[in-house]
Amino acid sequence: AGPAGRLVEASGTSYAAPQVAAALAGQHTAPDAQSARAAVNRLMSEVADAGERGPDPVYGAGVLRTGEGQ
């Protein structure tokens, strides 16, 4: 949120990292390697490719689609 609680548009890894972390944290009850791999695989299945085809320097792996009512 921006000034006075208004929504603002932002981009970059500093803004994306908390969204990705929250998506992963919501899938864990306790840390372990097997569930972490499964969570990352589920997360990657929710990524929409953006920019150049495949991973790229602007969008990385793509845009995370969680919370869009898919």
* Class from helix and strand fractions: mainly alpha
Shape: flat
Rg, rounded, reads 14 Å
Quaternary structure type: single chain
Question: Strand portion, in percent?
Answer: 5-15%
Q: In angstroms, what separates the terminal alpha carbons? A: 23 Å
Count of extended strands: 2
Q: Please outline the major beta sheet.
A: 2 strands, antiparallel
Instruction: Write out the strand line-up for the largest beta sheet, numbering strands in chain order.
Output: 1-2
Count of separate DSSP helical elements: 2
Return residue spans where pLDDT drops below 50 for at least 5 consecutive residues: none
Helical content class: 25-40%
Q: Helix-strand pattern, N to C?
A: HHEE
Average pLDDT works out at 80
